[in-house]
Design a protein that fits this description.
about 625 residues, mainly alpha, Amino acid/polyamine transporter I, two-stranded antiparallel ribbon, 2 strands, about 65% helix, about 0% strand
């Protein structure tokens, strides 16, 4: 390195400089080292093979959760109005794009079972840490949000006595960026279930089936009720209707904002902001990938299952959101308990109790199931040396990762205690959107890597390979380096199969494309009206970015792909992964600045903990 070249006359100062350069190089190698997969003879067939239908059932059970019962009310009342069904459609499209990318990696390395291990195997330690750290955030926030949703639903059922008592006591002392009151019920629920997990209780398949059945019955009843008691006029509300409802209620503060009325009262911005929140409701379809090893035909069943899961969940969300906004004017929805209050509004008082009890039963199961993945990810990271190894310690009798379970439970409990449900939804959405974007990026880059293939029918054992993916010096690998040859290879690759040089070109272009896609996402999120009104400056910037993006994408398209057969390939590469990344980034830009601040703090803390661990070891 040029920085390492020193004068031979100053040998005394060159020694520490060489040492620093060597340490820096070792640190860089550590960041890009990745798992090496080797076949082993220790193979066994799955004890309970999962066909496509069972995978779809598992995916639907993992996806339908608190979003369908609590989130719908808040988004419809304050953000999107009846156009929430379009918000769910946009979120579903984003999920489909991400699901296709998940399907490719799930069929490539179906035995890994998580985006963390996949990124470690394919991209290296740095990417694995970023992916896993944000997965932990999403899982912990998911647990906290379900606990908060259960607490809200229970309190609404008993007349909001808990809310009234705690808000009156704690509200004056709570900072504006936290909840109005600490939710001790949600905290107690999370800690209780954490204790149950520590004792070695496992997830029950029978309980899961019963819970899913209850959920489907409740959803069917809600949707059918909407056809009976719904009123299309609630999608055409005007200022006169709002004034009439205000005079009837006698309290304007009990109503939500009117906006501009009609089907889209909060315009284009409301639909997209609602889509960013509604994305929370589709989180869970990626759990299907964790069952790839149990599927006898994963290359077919995983893609079909993911697409079917997203479609079925969209139909459910479409049905309940349409029902809610047809039964109740959107500005009269009770966000904390939308469906029980909707039945009360249409005169079906007894039905609200049946719906409320069904919702509580289902959310209790979802809370338990949402706690299971977190300790597993923490334990895997600790075993790989990315977190403190003490977190991987397991109980001798129950085989439960005690420290990982307790730490994740405490963190989830604190989140449920201090943050509003909407803030937790924002945090979970941004974490999963980032992870899904990373998976799309990995799929794009790895398709152009040389000698990138796995044996699909063999079990593997994990090792760490101190070898960078595309970080080698091209001068040391192939004699194709030269500035003229490099520029020529951008458009006319010299080989029909991937080389180290072509892989480096794709890697660099992919990073550039992420930057180019982030800029228009930010512009569209911050100044949408100016962009669509034809502002000359923004229009010029948009056209230039489009031209640059198209040119860089063509460069990637011209590079040779790995000819090795894959069980499933994302179609229209490199376009589809890039569209997925763009949509995900754009939805992330809809998240509030306060959520971004918390998200940034979380990742800084992760980097800080990683640094401390490195110093101690």
């Amino acid at each position: 390195m040029a920085l390492c070249l020193v004068s031979s006359a100053d040998h005394s100062s060159s020694t520490p400089s060489r040492m620093r350069c060597q340490e820096l190089r070792q640190f860089g190698q550590k960041l890009v080292r990745r798992r090496l997969l080797e076949p082993t003879n220790d193979s066994k067939s799955p004890t309970a093979p999962l066909n496509t239908l069972k995978l779809v059932a598992f995916g639907v059970a993992s996806t339908l959760g608190a979003g369908v019962y609590i989130l719908v009310g808040e988004v419809a009342m304050f953000i999107a109005g009846p156009a929430i069904i379009i918000s769910f459609l946009v979120a579903a499209v984003s999920s489909v794009l991400s699901g296709l990318c998940y399907a490719e990696f799930g069929t490539q390395v179906s035995w890994t079972g998580s985006a963390y291990l996949y990124s470690y195997i394919s991209m290296g330690e740095l990417w694995a840490f970023i992916t896993a750290w944000n997965l932990i955030l999403s899982y912990v926030i998911g647990t906290g949000s379900v606990a908060r949703a259960w607490s809200i639903a229970f309190d609404s059922l008993i007349g909001n006595h808990i809310f009234q008592a705690l808000e009156g006591t704690f509200s004056p002392y709570m900072p504006y960026y936290l909840a109005k009151y600490p939710d001790f019920l949600a905290l107690s629920l999370v800690l209780l279930l954490t204790g149950v997990l520590v004792l070695g209780v496992r997830e029950s398949v029978l309980v899961g089936k019963i819970s899913t059945g209850i959920n489907l019955l409740v959803l069917s009843f809600i949707i059918l009720s909407g056809f009976i008691k719904g009123d299309l006029h609630n999608w055409k509300l005007t200022e006169q209707d709002y004034t009439l409802n205000t005079s009837e209620s006698g309290d304007i503060y009990s109503l939500g904002p009117l906006g501009s009325g009609g089907f889209v009262p909060f315009n284009y911005d409301g639909i997209l902001h609602g889509a960013a929140l509604c994305f929370y409701s589709f989180v869970g379809f990626d759990d299907i990938v964790t069952k790839g090893e149990e599927a006898p035909n994963p290359h077919r069943s995983i893609p079909i299952s993911i697409m079917s899961t997203v479609f079925i969940c969209f139909l459910a969300y479409f049905g309940v959101s349409a029902t809610l906004t047809l039964m109740v004017p959107y500005y009269q929805i009770q966000p904390d308990s939308p469906f029980p209050q909707a039945f009360l509004h249409v005169g079906w008082g007894p039905a609200r109790y049946v719906v409320a009890v069904g919702i509580l039963c289902f959310l209790l199961y979802r809370l338990q199931s949402s706690l299971f993945p977190v300790p597993q990810v923490i334990q895997e990271m600790a075993e790989d040396g990315l977190l403190f190894r003490g977190l991987a310690r397991t109980h001798a009798r129950t085989k439960t990762p005690i420290m990982a379970t307790v730490s994740s439970g405490i963190l989830a409990g604190i989140m449920a205690l201090l943050f509003e449900f909407s803030n937790l939804v924002d945090l979970m959405s941004i974490g999963h959107l980032l992870v899904y974007s990373l998976v799309a990026f990995f799929v794009l880059v790895l398709r152009y890597q040389p000698d990138w293939n796995f044996s699909k029918n063999e079990k593997i054992e994990d090792k760490i390979q101190m070898k960078p993916l595309v970080m080698e010096n091209p001068l040391d690998s192939e004699p194709e380096a030269g500035s003229s040859n490099t520029l020529k290879s951008l458009w006319l690759p010299i080989s029909t199969t991937p080389t180290q040089k072509s892989a480096q070109i794709v890697y660099g272009c992919a990073f550039l494309l992420v930057l180019l896609l982030t800029i228009p996402s930010l512009i569209l999120a911050q100044w949408p009206s100016q962009v669509f009104s034809g502002d000359p400056v923004l229009t010029t910037v948009a056209v230039l970015l489009l031209l640059l993006t198209t040119g860089v994408m063509i460069i990637i398209w011209r590079q040779p792909q790995d000819p090795s057969p894959l069980p499933f390939r994302v179609p229209a590469l490199p376009l589809l992964p890039l569209v997925s990344i763009f949509v995900n980034i754009y939805l992330m830009m809809q998240i509030t600045s306060g959520t971004w601040a918390i998200f940034g703090i979380w990742n800084v803390v992760g980097k800080w903990l990683s640094g401390i661990k490195g110093l101690l070891e």
